């Protein structure tokens, strides 16, 4: 029953006949109605840390957007690359990748997507190639560090790998994958990445500083952003979840800016991407049903049997199974299932588990690029785009992103083989 409901829900999401949020919530309710999960079990599978992180950062971004900061950054970035759309796409994707490595990828896209919409509107170029590039860059950047993506946090915590271990083992290969991915996106979309000389000249003559409409509010927002980012960087040492860091920042910013302004409070909270929030809640329950019924565990265990304990075969299988699975289901429960399985393999005599951990990290994080619902950042960008009248098609995104994801896993396979095997 869990598999039937999950497959039906997925088919409807892909078909785009019904909005994905409605499908996810309806599927989650069916899991409870048919007795696959109790209501308490369903709620326990909802990752409230992810939802809290999203809501907190959305509130901070929504208040900050009132200052004109995003328009300022958009014009500044465009002028630095002389308003050339191809160079701008590479620059915005590069910024997204670097920020995703230091923050988490969802926070990064919440900050960069408004900038992208603003500058593409100024240049009158199609925003979708820019959004697709930023989705892929955010997941690639998130793969490079311990704090960039939740699977890495889980692996680091379970195995005792520190921040520098991820930097030294994954950052170089992630940078290479980013360069190749960005160049291929430019190759695919280069015909759309053109604007007129008049529009370029118009952007080059704009005064970026004039875009700052509320300097006093901006100072408060930047002050809170510094505190929030500091909490993200130190959250492990402080024993705080990332949601606590984000909601601390959001609460503080509302307290010092709009605590008595009910109209502004309503405006800020109404602009939270609630469709994305409820989609995640439903998706967590759908995947939780597969975890509780043993479907994910059974698939992972059967896959491990195929390799018969060979280190090279097992490493490649973990990499590819993680990537393909993470493209279609949330990578957090999948990684949670594989970590104890890999540890069990060590107990059964496989001496060097190092290649398996890096394979799991690269597969789970990069695999999220495969589809529009493969990673949190993808869903958030799609939701923000839809709110601005730009619908990103599941199928069209997959036609571009899935082959690029497969290429990134091929590159990862070569890297892991020659470095560790």
Structure description:
Helices cover 77% and strands 0% of the residues. The chain has 421 residues and is mostly helical. Helix 5 crosses helix 7 (105-123), helix 7 packs parallel to helix 20 and helix 8 packs antiparallel against helix 10 (163-189). The protein has helices at residues 2-15, 20-33, 39-44, 48-65, 69-80, 85-102, 105-123, 128-142, 150-159, 163-189, 197-204, 215-234, 242-257, 262-270, 274-292, 295-307, 311-328, 331-347, 354-367, 376-387, 394-420. It has 21 helices and no strands.
Tally of DSSP β-strands: 0
Rg value: 21 Å
Order of helices and strands: HHHHHHHHHHHHHHHHHHHHH
Number of helical runs?
A: 21
Q: Quaternary arrangement of the chains shown?
A: single chain
**Amino- and carboxy-terminal Cα gap:** 41 Å
The low-pLDDT segments are none
Can you tell me the overall shape? globular
Instruction: Work out the strand percent.
Output: under 5%
Global mean pLDDT:
89
The largest pleated sheet is described as: none
Helix content: over 70%
SS-derived structural category: mainly alpha
């Amino acid at each position: 029953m869990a598999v039937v409901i999950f497959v039906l829900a997925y088919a409807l999401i892909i078909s785009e006949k019904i909005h994905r949020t409605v499908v996810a919530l309806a599927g989650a309710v069916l899991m409870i109605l048919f007795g696959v999960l109790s209501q308490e079990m369903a709620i326990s599978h909802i990752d409230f840390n992810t939802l809290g992180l999203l809501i907190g950062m959305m509130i901070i971004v929504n208040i900050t957007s009132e200052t004109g900061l995003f328009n300022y950054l958009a014009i500044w970035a465009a002028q630095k690359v002389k308003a050339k759309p191809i160079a701008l796409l590479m620059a915005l994707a590069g910024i997204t990748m670097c920020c995703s490595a230091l923050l988490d990828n969802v926070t990064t896209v919440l900050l960069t997507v408004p900038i992208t919409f603003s500058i593409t509107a100024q240049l009158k170029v199609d925003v979708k190639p820019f959004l697709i590039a930023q989705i892929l860059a955010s997941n690639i950047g998130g793969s490079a560090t311990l704090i960039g993506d939740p699977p890495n946090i889980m692996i680091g915590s379970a195995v005792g790998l520190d921040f520098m271990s991820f930097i030294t083992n994954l950052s170089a290969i992630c940078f290479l994958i980013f360069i190749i991915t960005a160049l291929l996106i430019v190759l695919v979309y280069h015909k759309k990445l053109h604007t007129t000389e008049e529009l370029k000249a118009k952007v080059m003559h704009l005064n970026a500083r004039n875009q700052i409409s509320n300097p006093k509010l901006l100072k408060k927002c930047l002050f809170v952003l510094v505190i929030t980012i500091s909490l993200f960087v130190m959250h492990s040492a402080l024993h705080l979840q990332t949601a606590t860091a984000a909601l601390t920042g959001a609460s503080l910013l509302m307290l010092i800016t709009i605590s008595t302004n009910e109209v502004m409070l309503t405006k800020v909270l109404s602009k939270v991407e609630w469709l994305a929030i409820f989609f995640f809640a439903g998706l967590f329950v759908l995947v939780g049903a597969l975890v509780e019924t043993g479907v994910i565990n059974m698939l992972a265990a059967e896959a491990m049997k195929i390799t018969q304990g060979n280190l090279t075969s097992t490493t490649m299988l973990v990499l590819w199974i993680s990537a393909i699975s993470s493209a279609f289901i949330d990578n957090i429960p999948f990684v949670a299932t594989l970590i104890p399985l890999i540890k069990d393999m060590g107990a059964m005599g496989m001496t060097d588990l190092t290649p398996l951990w890096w394979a799991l990290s690269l597969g789970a994080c990069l695999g999220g690029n495969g589809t529009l619902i493969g990673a949190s950042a993808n869903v958030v960008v799609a939701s923000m785009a839809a709110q601005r009248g730009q619908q990103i098609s599941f199928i069209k995104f997959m036609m571009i992103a899935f082959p690029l994801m497969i290429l990134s896993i091929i590159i990862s396979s070569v890297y892991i083989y020659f470095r560790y095997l």
